[in-house]
Design goal:
By secondary structure, the protein is an alpha+beta fold. It has helices at residues 2-33, 43-70, 92-95, 121-125, 276-289, 315-323, 371-380, 421-426, and strands at 76-87, 98-100, 102-113, 130-139, 144-145, 163-164, 168-181, 185-198, 217-229, 235-247, 258-269, 300-312, 340-352, 357-368, 387-402, 405-419, 430-439, 447-455, 458-471. The protein starts with a helix and ends with a strand.
Length: 475
């Protein structure tokens, strides 16, 4: 119930996030058109003031026109594709019980393509990318898992059936950036994030060997590289290689995660007539004239302060109930675990050296409320490793911006970490963090987002992040 409550809260957070975004767009349009130009002022000074205000008014009206044109039909298209794939064996442990790996997926996207005529400085910097809202169906029922009798499994006994990975439906958003364009060819890379749902997860009744997926609601991440051949003005054939990941971010156990890799092929339709050579010509002319919006950008230093509120199910709970609990015990190979709180504080010195990029270095402070619980489990096993709820790290930080949305990434090294025997044996001395944030307009740069902390791409916990930049006048 705690887990479902937290995930439900995350869904409400995403819904509120979208409402705030819509309200901000409405407020900007209201500011632009909801006021009439000021009345004339007397005298030469008044005329100059009036002239400046009229120019400002014209700029606002032009900005509104650009916004309206941005939602015109020539920006919208769609894509359908199929993706035969294989579930990867992440390590030697998974190789012992992942018996069949074949899977496939189908995908549909509603696509919004930015154009040089949008006068969008961010779009210009990214080569006029495509934003997409996608819905995919992943047929994973053919993925088979079975643990043969093996002393490595401890008290876990072999069952007389195979466990299957459940089929998954995923709703996601994608960012597709072109790397090369010509009259007929286009090369791009794409990143996507979203939420998935599977009807068949780990359970001790008919999926006891499914260690890949342990909850119905899932976090999704995807990446791919593609080549598109435009054989007609509006039509193209697209092919590439894609990686897709589903997991619960350590909000429950098990959480090995389903990692799929394979080729894709599909068809793309776009109503825009400014493709290929014509698009390249228009873009070059737009850059030459400098008419792609307000291109002014000022480099700056700032201190980014972030608070994180997250949760995790300790790996130790899973290992105890799976391998060290007798079949007669009610907790034998259970799928019900307690969710523990995890908190973090980040203080980062950042340099915004480009409109779309900022990099820096920072200190990370972590607090895990589960430390005492892990200490009791270790003591029962005879381990004498030290335990502390506090961890400290130093990390290299990087953030990519597209308007108010940003992708924050970091790679850190622990300066202090004492989280027991399993952490010492299985965790790396370094950690990774990745998260998606949205900057709320008119709140001084305050951003909200979701992030994951991991060790060698294995989730440690998932968190809600509040971030605020403190800008320096000079440095």
């Amino acid at each position: 119930m705690i887990i479902m409550g937290l995930i439900s809260s995350m869904q409400r957070f995403i819904f509120i996030w979208l409402i705030l975004f819509a309200v901000s767009l409405y407020a900007e349009e209201k500011d632009s058109v909801g006021r009439t130009p000021p009345a004339p002022l007397g005298g030469e000074s008044g005329e100059r003031t009036l002239s400046v205000k009229r120019q400002a008014w014209s700029v606002k009206r032009e900005a509104l026109r650009v916004k309206r044109e941005a939602w015109s039909a020539e920006h919208w298209g769609w894509q359908l594709d199929v993706n035969p794939c294989w579930i990867l064996k992440a390590d030697e442990y998974v190789s012992k019980w992942l018996k069949k790996q074949n899977a496939w997926a189908v995908d549909a996207q509603l696509r919004y393509r930015s154009l040089p005529s949008d006068n969008d400085a961010f779009a210009h910097d990214f080569g006029y990318p495509t934003l997409a809202l996608g819905l995919s169906y992943h047929h994973y029922d053919g993925v088979v898992m079975h643990k043969d009798a093996n002393p490595l499994w401890g008290m876990a006994q072999e069952v007389d059936y195979d466990s299957h990975l459940g089929n998954t439906v995923t709703l996601y958003g994608a960012f597709e950036r072109p790397l090369f364009r010509s009259k007929h060819w286009e090369l791009d890379y794409a990143l996507s994030v979203g939420l998935g749902y599977t009807g068949h997860k780990y359970n001790p009744v008919d999926a006891v060997d499914n260690e890949l997926i342990g909850s119905h609601l899932l976090v999704y991440f995807g990446a791919g590289v593609h080549a598109t051949y435009h054989f007609a003005q509006n039509w193209g054939v697209k092919a590439g290689v894609e990686f897709k990941h589903h997991s619960n971010g350590a909000l429950n156990r098990p959480n090995k995660g389903a990692n799929a890799l394979g080729p894709m092929i599909g068809v793309v339709w776009t109503p825009s007539t400014s493709l290929g050579e014509e698009s390249v010509k228009r873009e070059a002319w737009s850059v030459k004239r400098g008419d792609f919006g307000n291109t002014s950008f000022q480099k700056s230093w700032y201190m980014n302060i972030s608070l994180g509120f997250g949760g995790k199910v300790p790996l130790e709970d899973w290992q105890v109930t799976q391998f060290q609990t007798p079949p007669s015990d009610p907790d034998y190979r259970t799928g019900d675990f307690k969710l523990y709180a995890a908190y973090s504080l980040q203080a980062d010195l950042m340099r915004r050296y480009a409109r779309r990029w900022a990099s820096g270095i920072g200190f990370d402070l972590f607090y895990g409320s589960y430390a005492d619980h892990v200490a009791s489990l270790d003591a029962a096993q005879g381990y004498t490793d030290r335990h502390s709820p506090w961890s400290v790290g130093i990390a290299a930080k990087h953030e990519v911006f597209y308007h108010r949305v940003s992708l924050a990434m970091s790679l850190g090294v622990y300066l202090h970490r004492q989280m027991g025997h399993q952490a010492k044996e299985l965790e790396t001395p370094y950690y990774e963090r990745i998260g998606l944030k949205y900057q709320i307009p008119r709140l001084g740069g305050l951003a909200v987002g979701l992030g994951i902390k991991a060790h060698l791409m294995k989730a440690d916990y998932t968190e809600l992040v509040l971030s605020y930049p403190i800008k320096f006048q000079s440095f």
